[in-house]
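In this section we walk through a basic example: taking a raw amino acid sequence and producing a predicted 3D structure, encoded as discrete structure tokens. The instruction is simple. Fold the sequence below.
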Amino acid sequence: MASSFITLVLLGCLLLWLLAWQRRSQLAIGIAIGVVLGAIGAPAVGGIHHMPIWLPALPFALVALSLFGFGLLAWFWGEN
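The resulting token sequence is shown next.
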């Protein structure tokens, strides 16, 4: 039962990726790069049971810090 569910989920993901490839190939390439990076990084984390508490929030923190940095640059380099 579980293996058939996993197969259906993987086929659904493949269909969504094919739809993304038809609509916007850049999106599909980004998805593929993300999946490859996730597959490479998953063994480094050690699985879901040993995941550090800060890891799920890391992308949000990086986006916030990037926007803060861009805001500082716009403030200092802005027109007088």
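Looking at the output, two observations stand out. The chain is about 80% helix and 0% strand. The chain has one domain: 2-77. In the next section we compare this with other chains.
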